[in-house]
Design brief:
The protein is mostly beta strands and 192 residues long. It has strands spanning 26-34, 44-48, 56-59, 65-71, 74-82, 85-87, 93-95, 100-109, 111-116, 130-134, 143-146, 152-158, 161-168, 175-181, 187-191. A hairpin with a 7-residue loop joins strand 2 (44-48) and strand 3. It starts with 25 loop residues before the first strand and ends with a strand.
């Protein structure tokens, strides 16, 4: 633990001992606060960077802290969400082997994306439509929701920017829709 993986092929004619030099790995310490500066417990913190697929995810402790360990040399971004709040992507933070980098995130009120799914022909609401919301950062796992009896569903804690929705329902053709969420809109609703 705490070192990059190493691999070496040994041929029969190679002289001497088999030895390795392992590079240390680094850490990234993330603190989460709300606007008044209080710790935010339970927020899902996501980390993107070199070699992370999918993104790493951890929940913040009671002190609003998360420690990501065993990270390779490189630049990382952190973000977080909890219910209707979110913290935007951090600036790129350089992680150096054997050291601990730090990032502070501030949780703010985020957007809500409301979706209404109806049958194209009858315009009747569709129940149990699976909707995946994909983030612009491809390594972040999509969020999932199902439509209710009214054909409605809601994603909270959404950051402004592009979101791709993929909809699937038995007996209907799958559909992908790109949605651009603006900063000044606190709620976005639409028919799909």
């Amino acid at each position: 633990a705490g070192h990059d993986a190493a691999e070496r092929v040994l041929r029969a004619e190679d002289p001497g001992e088999l030895s390795f030099t392992l590079a240390r790995q680094g850490e990234l310490f993330v603190t989460l606060r709300d606007a008044p500066g209080r710790a935010v417990e339970g927020a899902l913190v996501m980390l993107t960077g070199p070699g992370l697929w999918p993104a790493l995810e951890q929940r913040a402790n009671a002190h609003g802290e998360v420690l990501f360990e065993n990270l390779a040399l490189g630049e990382y971004r952190a973000r977080a969400r909890l219910a209707g709040r979110a913290a935007k992507d951090s600036e790129k933070t350089r992680v150096v082997p054997g050291e601990r980098a730090q990032v502070a995130l501030t949780m703010e009120q985020a957007l809500a994306l409301e979706v209404l799914v109806v049958d194209q022909t009858s315009q009747a609401p569709l129940v149990h439509v699976e909707v995946l919301a994909y983030d612009a950062a491809p390594s972040i796992a999509p969020r999932s929701a199902q439509s209710d009896r009214a054909g409605a569903l809601r994603f909270e804690g959404v950051l402004p920017g592009s979101v791709r929705l993929e909809l699937r329902h038995a007996g209907h053709a799958p559909k992908s829709v790109d949605v651009a969420l603006l900063n000044h809109v606190r709620q976005c609703a639409g028919r799909v």
